[in-house]
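Structure ticket #2291
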Amino acid sequence: METKKKAPKSFKRYIFDKETMIFLVEALILNTKIHEDIDDLYRTKSKTFHDYAVRSGHIEHPLIVCGSINHEEYGRRALGILQYAIETNNKNTINKLDKIIKKGWPEAYYNVSNYKTVNIESYIKELQNACMRSVAGSMAELFVFYCMCIDNMLPIVSKAELVSFFTALAMRSYIHTSERYFDAYNKKSEEKRRELDTLRERVINDYGITITPDNQIIVSNNDLNKLYRFAYRLVYTDKVEMYHMFKDIQLEEKDINDILCAYHDIYKDSSNDEAGRAFLSGLIIKLLVKSIIGAKDYYFRQTAEQAEMYLLEQTVERVRSENKRLISENERRNEIICNLNEKLRLSNTTAEKPLLDRIRDLEKQNAKLQEALRQEQQKERELSALREFFFNMENRDHSSEQDAVRPTEIIMDLKDTTGAIIGGNPKWSARMKELLPKWVFILSEGFDKRSLEGIQTIFFLPNNMSHALYYKAVAIAKTKNMDIGFIYNLNEQLALKAIAKVLAGA
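Resolution: structure written out below.
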């Protein structure tokens, strides 16, 4: 490019604002050969880096969350590391980050380290000639190259190319944040919406496409049925069944409208014979995307729960360590007392009184330490009981209470009340239905959420339900601001008493 410099120069600063930092994060995501190094660095301060990622304000940025679980995981990690490096200027973290970037983009680092000036137009040509790269990958490397130049304060030739480059970056940001595809149906004119409604009727009726409540797709048209069976068989080649992938997904009216809008915008002609085929393909794609989003939500929710459990374990470990220290201190004090007692036995009468006074002081100190130890042990027992409760709450046994309540002890008459009970078994539910005729009983996660319309209070049987049923029902309860209660015993009288207690409190 230009005359070589005397020696390579490592860059130590990160000079970009919050809006451009996201492109360096994307570069770290896309370069898979440095993921192992990012993992190693992240493990050194995982909780700290996570907190810095959250406070950056970018953790839900489309360039991070728009891909797979792996894509989002490394995006969050890279974001936390960068934000921490920028805010704290921690030399150790910056040095490790330097090494990662040098390893990921050796060509860029070589050019910046060995030349006094750089020509960005020439570097773009080198990228084009090196190998076939994606647009995002090429722009990522170009952005890293630019950051290296700025950190090393190198003059950059070809400013016109820089203008084009940053225009492209701005467009990438716009593409990933634009809402032009969101709520497309309601943005259409009334005339266009009528066309889409007509298209829906024609596709569903003419091609015989039916969607069951658990998202089974039934196709009566022979040609379309072949396409559906082809997709079904192709998914099953990896031992994944489409029915089980889709059955718990909430398919909404908006999803159907999104498919119709996409078809209408691309094909324009709503009478095109491709309508049924495109609708069926769009339906499968929509369900797959929702399945991926659900998997990501579950993964990151589980990750957050594991982080909370890790903090609880750390707290318990600190209490245990303090207990060990107090026990050791107590043993040391006891040893001192024993030695003083032995000296007291051997001492003469004149020395006896001050020694006894010393012993009494030590005994008082020992009593205080014993009390402190007892309090710490009580704290440990409380923490242990709390952990045991969270881990074993689903297996809680109330069998000993079954005969403790007589029908006459039921607090209030519940026959005229309304509510819903989630979980249980058919036989138990049938018996309870006789006692609570106006109540709704739900046993399976495939229930229609409309069955909970008008319900204000909802009860769960933790020992008699699936996780999927629980999460679905509790999500509905939260959105409708329902009162929530738990029933821990299948004894009818105990269950009625628990229900009455919650209703009385509500």
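Closing remark: The chain has 20 helices and eight strands.
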